């Protein structure tokens, strides 16, 4: 992954306790999926709350690359560039 850029994940408050209190975590990757795997390798408890047993993004979690939900792009295959920020947004339920 030597040509992969540094990507920043911005963690919601609920996940920070699983990442030693960090709000932002920098990883490397060329796609959202690669960056997410790097995040999970560095902080397994964060990863287990975002990634399902089959490697898919859990339904109650949304990942935004800038202002776009990656589900509306190419999902975990969405390409990222050095300096990009991925925001982890838990889904809000209610009615």
Write the layout of secondary structure elements.
Elements: E1 5-10, H1 13-16, E2 24-29, H2 32-42, H3 44-50, E3 61-65, E4 68-69, E5 85-90
Care to describe what's here?
The N and C termini lie far apart (44 Å). The longest helix is centred in the middle third of the chain and has 11 residues. This protein has one domain: Ubiquitin-like (UB roll) (Roll), CATH 3.10.20.30. Strands 2-1-5-3-4 form a 5-stranded mixed sheet, covered by helices on one side. The mean pLDDT is 91. It contains 3 helices and 5 strands, in the order E-H-E-H-H-E-E-E. Strand 3 and strand 4 form a beta hairpin. With 95 residues, it is an alpha+beta fold.
């Amino acid at each position: 992954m030597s040509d992969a850029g540094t990507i920043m994940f911005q963690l919601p408050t609920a996940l920070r306790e699983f990442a030693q209190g960090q709000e932002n975590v920098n990883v490397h990757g060329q796609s959202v999926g690669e960056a997410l795997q790097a995040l999970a390798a560095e902080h397994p408890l964060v990863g287990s709350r975002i990634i399902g047993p089959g490697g898919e993004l859990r339904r109650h979690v949304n990942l935004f690359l800038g202002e776009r939900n990656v589900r509306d792009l190419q999902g975990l295959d969405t390409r990222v560039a050095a300096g990009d920020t991925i925001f982890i947004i838990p889904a809000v339920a209610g009615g």
